[in-house]
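Listing S7. Sequence submitted for prediction.
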Amino acid sequence: MFFKAPKKPLTSCDIIHNLPGRLRIQCRALGFLDDYKDDIRDRLEADYAVTSVVAAPGSESVLIFYDTRKSNSREILELTEAVMASYSTVAFQIDREIHNKQTVQERRLHEEPLSEMLIRIGINAMTLMIGYVRRPAPSVTLFQKLTNLNALTAISLSKPIFTSGFDSMRYNGRPNADTLSAAAIMASLLSGKSVSSLTIILLADIAELMTAYTMERTRSAIVGMLALEEQFAWKIGPDGKEIRVPLEEIAPGDLVAIHTGSKVPVDGEVRSGEASIDEASLTGEFMPAIKCRGDIVYAGSTVKSGSLTVKAERVGDDRAISRIVHLVEEAQSRKAPIQAYADRFSAQFIPLNFALALIVYLITRSPTRALNMLIIDYSCGVRLSTATAFAAAVCRSAAQGVLVKGGNFIEILSEADTLILDKTGTITEGRPKVASVYPADPRIDTRDIVEAAAACEETTNHPIALAVVNKVREMGWQIPKHSPVKVHIGKGVEATVNRRKIRVGSEAYLKSASVAMTISDTIVAAMQQRGEKLIYVARSRQLMGVIGIQDSLREDMKKTLNRLRRKGYDEIVLLTGDIEAHANVMASKMSVDSYKAEALPEEKAEMVLQSQAKGNRVVMVGDGVNDAPALAYADVGISLGRGSTEISIETADIAINNDNPLLLPGIIGLSQKTMHIVRQNFATAIGVNTIGLMLASMGVLPVFWAAVLHNATTIAVVSNSARILITDIEKDI
């Protein structure tokens, strides 16, 4: 395996020296946090057991003195890991800046329009064809060498290459791939080999066109996934009339009318009207939201029913949906470790090519052989092959409803070995249903129990309440008229129906109201064993019965976990806020390795950190607000399903905007395939170009064929990367 990234995360900690009351801990992140060492020391010393701390960023370690009567080495290590984890973003950014200084500034291909690239290729190809047909006389003088058709075309087409190469030397003090190409083109022209210079430019443009096309496909796929397609808006003029205008003419403060079936074109505040808004493309929330005066709406959401008048606050690139698109575009700069390595590798070999050209010329006195040392280089093949592979992976993912926020997550995902799953809304559908109803007395009808419970739950938005109300509506029953509902937070609800008090809630709540629990213990045990959540219903002081609520497993979730096992995930952990009995049932059904019940958000994050401290690469999958901390701490955080909340999607590194769990092993399989292709590209680019350099230095390979060999290799590895664009990630890759 080539260039495998370090197994441990940046903020993982190891004990390197341990004496009673004295502990030295090493953490790689400390090496980047010299400006924060005082803050780190203060936070560690704030612990009641720690007496003093010496932070040494130079040695990437921290020396901690503590009271052995109050703590031990394991707890001090956990404390240090927790403190260092809070600096993970800062350390990562500094680490990336240092790596960027080791690379060279290259042209951003996706900033060049594809149409311009096609025109360049067309002009180049046409010039070569004319030269082949006309067979011009050989150029003798320097003036003739630089003023024939081939030479003039090469000079005009190579302007971006010369500009980039010169700017790299001027501003960075280092040559880049374009510097090398510019030198090779100029050397070809001066030696009268203008056909070779055109060939160099033509083949390089073809490779870059393929890369730029892949990046453009990526952006289009992201925009398409977010359904950003409104180009016009209905602007309300001073006279109150609606005028259809291009979207770019809408300015902050303008009033915009939005009707049923239309997409919201701006971010803004509702001034009048009421409508049901589908915000799934932005938040993943499958239930439409009701928006009225004073509410905020976002561009990209859809009006399902109703009409709104919205005062525009953010337009154009300031809109939320535009910021998401730009966020993912900028994520291309979040290079994977192997991609950053490729950039540094190619940057280090560029000066070597100049040195080889000089050495070969001094030994052979052959300008042709020396020129080949400039034409054949590792930079283009290595750099473009990795960039195209990761761009293609992000593109293909977006096309199938998976938003990946950077190529670095593709590589980390391919090497991860531990999966931590939230239960509600991730393993399960997050839409509880009534699974069973048992009366406390055979004379009580189950319909009466459910209808009484629905009377108390009708105005509540809790998922369990919705399950009861939906059951009544599905069966065609009626919700009885009732008094205003009184809510006892965390316990239950009550209301008056036909002058009799109805109480719905936990066993403890009903007992506190002096309701006798006359339901059979056998029935209760059986319901709990099936993983049902119990709610008790009482009328006055009499128990009517118990309703079992169950959240169904996502379809294909068991198959999903089996596929993940085959892909190398040897530890799968279930986290849930449910009680122990329910968690145990779910863990048994899913055959996970371990589980934690009644887990709070901070405990979920702690589980991630503890697993990372063991040297595991952790993937966290969740969908709710309480999963956001764990998603942020994980090596890769994934939000799964249309029910994912906005904060979990924003925090997650990968957002699966689909309820199909098979996309989870699909995106992991895609990441592994991507890394396999990247390694193939490395081997091909390095191997073929090395052979080419050897043959060229011996005079076996002419300049023209050296250019063909080098650029054909680049085209080959870029084409190999483009295979990812036709991958179906819903299938088991």
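Caption to Listing S7: primary sequence and predicted structure tokens for the chain studied. Residues 663-697 form the longest helix (35 residues). The chain has five domains: 13-95, 109-218+329-391+678-726, 232-262+267-314, 402-428+554-657, 433-550.
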